[in-house]
Design a protein that fits this description.
Blueprint lengths: L2 H18 L15 H9 L11 E13 L2 E8 L2 E8 H4 L1 H8 L6 E10 L5 E12 L15 H6 L1 H7 L1 H22 L4 E2 L5 E2 L11 E4 L4 E5 L4 H9 L4 E9 L11 E10 L3 H20 L3 E4 L2 E4 L5 E4 H7 L11 H10 L14 H13 L7 E4 L21 E6 L2 E8 L4 H16 L10 H8 L5 E7 H8 L20
Parallel strand pairs: 3-5, 6-10, 14-15
Antiparallel strand pairs: 1-2, 1-4, 2-3, 4-5, 7-9, 8-9, 10-11, 11-18, 12-13, 15-16, 16-17, 17-18
């Protein structure tokens, strides 16, 4: 029998003994008057007059025990922090102390008592009562080594949160990030909405969807790859500023930057342009950095990231020339551009060359040779129409669109553009996508007739944007992998 199984068996024996003694293992009637933080704030506030006999009722998980015969110090955690408590037989009584000796690290207890300072100056709870609230059968990881294995941390996040205070703090920051985004937009007259997660047609992004089936409706449905087309229907309906903090799903690869289920912010503003949204994005990100990272300039994975000041704006074609080394004369020559890409070892997967125009080749080159070098916040503008089926054409160059993508630390963080609201042009773009599908493009392409119908009723000039919240959380919490900022990331199955 393994050491761990031996410990579990011994705990089960204790549990049986407690049951035979009439001890309730999982009561549900204990009332808490203060959190650990509440108590620390009170006793550490020099201006507050705290009476020595003031009583506090607390509860939490035992994390450490140090016994001294008929007394013991324990450390316990609640949601707000850790506190030390002192248990003495002559105060809690023989029966209670006998019960306490049968408890284990990991058990939940409730205690009532007063606060005092130890000889080392640490505020501690002097317990005058103790109650078992919840019994743990499995032992926690050994304190010295803790829980460090990333694989185990991701698969058993509950254990990760119990053992690692920094992980708990990270996910608190993530929650604060989402709330700060929400308050920023609500303060600018945006309306928060919800759109379908199961959709009859996959649309709003170039990605492979997950497919399911609805029995009662006898129809296929797709988990959304983006909420875009529904949000723009709402703009047509008169909601001129809308946003959704949404869960989206893409049936594609898993990496340090990709999870098949992810969180995204999408928002749309009528009577705005993509340039307005770049300004708004700078303002949003700077406020988030101050709130979450504590400064506009902060370190990410050993590199100083500068959010303060105005951010660089660089046209896509110029970035290809200056950073990737592409001769501008190749921008209109598909075969030569393809040869350049292949000479740099750029792969196009299974996509047919017939389905690849110069726009798609350009963005492939950009992804491989430019994106990793964009460390400081940089807006890349002027994407080809071919890779921007929902974006408004640029007035000066109709082969390009009024679109930007934001890159920070060598990865895409946001995508925004002035929306295409011409229904005829939009329909032709959809038809062109279908032609590419017939030529071998693997990504599902559709014509959303109802979306075209909505545009035919008239949508005001609008700009919209999507921001990856998971990647933004990585950035602002100095996390190397997307799995570090998702509570329950998807993992490959393991043998039982």
């Amino acid at each position: 029998m393994s050491k761990k199984n031996d410990v579990i068996e011994k705990r089960k024996e204790k549990i049986q003994t407690l049951k035979e003694s009439g001890i309730e293992l999982f009561p549900n009637d204990y009332k808490v008057s203060h959190t650990v933080k509440d108590i620390k704030d009170l006793v550490e506030n020099e201006s507050a007059e705290i009476a020595e006999d003031a009583s506090y009722s607390v509860a939490g998980r035992i994390m450490a025990v140090n016994r001294f015969g008929k007394s013991a110090f324990i450390r316990f955690n609640d949601r707000s922090g850790q506190l030390q408590a002192y248990i003495r037989t002559d105060i809690v009584g023989d029966d209670t102390y006998t019960l306490f000796k049968k408890l284990d690290i990991g058990d939940f207890v409730g205690m009532t008592g007063t606060m005092f300072k130890t000889k080392t100056g640490e505020w501690s709870l002097l317990a005058n009562s103790l109650q078992l609230i919840s019994k743990a059968t499995r032992p926690l990881p050994e304190k010295f080594h803790g829980l460090k294995d990333p694989e185990k941390r991701y698969r058993q996040r509950y254990l990760d949160l119990i053992m690692n205070a920094d992980v708990r703090e990270l996910f608190i920051k993530r929650s604060q990030l989402v709330q700060a985004i929400r308050m920023f937009l609500l303060g600018r007259d945006f309306l928060e909405v919800e759109t379908p997660m199961m959709q009859p047609l996959p649309g709003g992004a170039d990605a492979k969807p997950f497919k399911t089936y609805h029995n009662s409706l006898s129809m296929d449905l797709f988990l959304r790859i983006a909420p875009e087309l529904y949000l723009k229907r709402l703009v047509t309906g008169g909601f001129e500023r809308v946003f959704e903090i949404n869960r989206s799903f893409r049936n594609e690869g898993i990496s340090t930057q990709h999870n098949p289920e992810f969180t995204m912010l999408e928002f749309y503003q009528a009577y705005a342009t993509y340039e307005d949204l770049m300004n708004l994005t700078e303002e949003l990100f700077q406020s988030l950095a101050l709130s979450i990272a504590g400064a506009m300039d902060f370190e990410y994975q050993g590199v100083q990231i500068k959010f303060s000041g105005s951010w660089k704006r660089l046209p896509l074609l110029e970035s290809l020339e200056k950073i990737a080394g592409v001769d501008p004369s190749l921008f209109s020559q598909k075969d030569e551009l393809m040869n350049f890409a292949l000479s740099k070892g750029i792969s196009f997967g299974n996509r047919s060359e017939d389905a690849m125009g110069v726009g798609k080749i350009m963005t492939k080159i950009f992804d491989a040779l430019v994106e990793p070098k964009l460390i400081q916040p940089t807006f890349i503008t002027g994407y080809p129409v071919e890779v921007s089926p929902l974006s408004r054409r640029n007035k000066e160059n109709p082969e390009l669109t009024d679109r930007f993508e934001l890159f920070i630390a060598g990865r895409e963080i946001a995508n925004g553009f002035s929306e295409l609201n011409d229904p005829e042009d939009q329909k032709n773009r959809f038809l062109h996508q279908l032609e590419n599908k017939e030529a071998g493009d693997e990504t599902p392409q559709i014509i959303d007739d109802d979306y075209i119908r909505a545009l035919e009723y008239g949508m005001p000039p609008t700009a919209g944007e999507g921001i990856g919240i998971d990647r933004l959380a990585m950035l602002l919490t100095d996390s190397a992998s997307i799995r570090d900022v998702i509570l329950f990331p998807h993992m490959k199955p393991t043998d039982k």
